Amino acid sequence: MKSVRALVAALLLAVPLAACGDGKSSAPAMEEAMVDQATLAKFVALLPAAPKGFTAAPATTVTGKERSVVAQTYSAPTTDSFSVEITFSNADVAKFQKMLDEPKEANKAAAEINQIAGRNALSFSSPVVTNAKYLMIVSPSRYVTVTPLFGDTLKPIMRSVFEQIDFDAIAAQK
Hints:
Elements: H1 2-18, H2 37-43, E1 55-56, E2 60-62, E3 68-75, E4 81-88, H3 90-101, H4 103-108, E5 111-116, E6 119-124, E7 134-139, E8 142-150, H5 155-163, H6 167-172
Antiparallel strand pairs: 1-3, 2-3, 3-4, 4-8, 5-6, 6-7, 7-8
């Protein structure tokens, strides 16, 4: 009986050691889709400030079964407006990651791969898959987008705002 206990104890101790490996986690990514309102509220502070000449509307948070979103709309007196969204959805991230990994998929989605803040991001030239202009995957379950809502002179403004987002903080926020 002692040898059985010793064997069980050895196996229990070996499992955590085996998980240490090369530093890459083999565990599946944290599932995030239906995120509670209190957690979403923590992400509001990570949304960027309004650019010069724009005002920011109050942030909105939506909890959904397939995805949850924290969003803010920025508007100019000229009626130009765009939104920045932090979305929680493993399924969406997997779809967009495929576009980053496979150029054919990006082409089908009217997307290009750009360097923004030292990372690969997608930019979309037409709304084949999403209305977003820029999209950055920040974790296996989170991504950030900037989407034009109204106006045709927003591209440089949206890119500038997008480049100022703290993507690492969004990925690390609990």
